[in-house]
Amino acid sequence: MREVATVTSKTMVTIPARIRRKYGLKQGTKVVFLESEGSVRLVPVPSISDLFGIDKQHKDILLQAVRELEEEHRREARE
Questions:
Q1: Quick one: 10 and 35 in the same domain?
Q2: Beta carbons of 32 and 41 less than 8 angstroms apart
């Protein structure tokens, strides 16, 4: 679905309500603007509290990656 907003005289834009609800944008939410091939993306930046516990679903993969890095560091130290 397409949403249209207007840039004000103070270069501000109101994000349409449907988009705010869908992506959980609320007062104080940080966003980053990404430029790409003549367009601009607005991407929400999650807060630290939003990220708490996110690693639980990937625990096994993360532990394996840490073990591999430790082993690589040990090999490099021996050489």
A1: yes
A2: no
Give this prediction's pTM: 0.57
Owning domain of residue 63: 50-79
One-letter amino acid for residue 56 of the chain: K
Structural domains in the chain (count): 2
The answer to whether the CB of 2 falls within 8 A of the CB of 19 is no
Q: How confident is the model at residue 8 (pLDDT cuts 50, 70, 90)?
A: very high
- The conformational region for residue 75 under phi > 0 = left, psi -120 to 50 = alpha, else beta, is alpha
Rounded to 5, what percent of the chain is helix, strand, coil?
A: 45, 20, 35
